[in-house]
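G., the chain you wanted modeled:
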Amino acid sequence: MSKTRTPGRSPSQRSPHSQSQPVCAPAVEPTVAIAGACQGGLVTAVGPDATVRVRVGLRGEVQARRAASCLLVPAVGDTVACLRTGPSELWVLAVLQRDAAQPAVLRCDGALHLEAARLQLDADQLELRGRRTHLVADEVEVAARQFRLCAGTIKFVGSVLSSVMDRVTHFSRHYLRTTQGTDRVQAMHIDHEAQQLMQLKAEHVMVNGGKLVKTRGAQIHFG
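Predicted structure as tokens:
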């Protein structure tokens, strides 16, 4: 028994629609930014309210804001890392590269609290500026070759004041001193000189000279 064989089409006679065609993905516009993508940029301008102008890829210059974690304030010419969180939201996360001659400024918009077991600052020159400064400590020790303090008003309040100096020089227009207890001066030589008037006043005055008591003047009055 012979089998009937259906003649097939040759490869040249097949329909062109039956052949498999490669599927191509839709083209993505290179200028469209993807949310959540981190990219680098160049700072071209800095605004006063934590905003900067950054040149990112093919998009040209766009406006970005400094993230709270980026304490180093970006400057013009810095290479920064940016993160896009939305179509119009670009954040500067960190400063990647900066010219060595450009000063570094750390800035926090709110209050800044540093907490550590030990904090050490090493610098050739240290400057502290503030409208009000408070220092609270159990013990404070300052060691310096020269110490200079300039202020309009200086006030010391304490229980004990002790000073040791090789030489003390004092100059003032008016000098007032009040002591409720004992005021004692002990020295090898004491010299008091007044240009116009010297007055010693007390309920009892005693002058003791071991070998000599001398009083000299144009007029001497007793009683």
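The first strand starts at residue 38 and ends at 46.

Shout if anything looks off.
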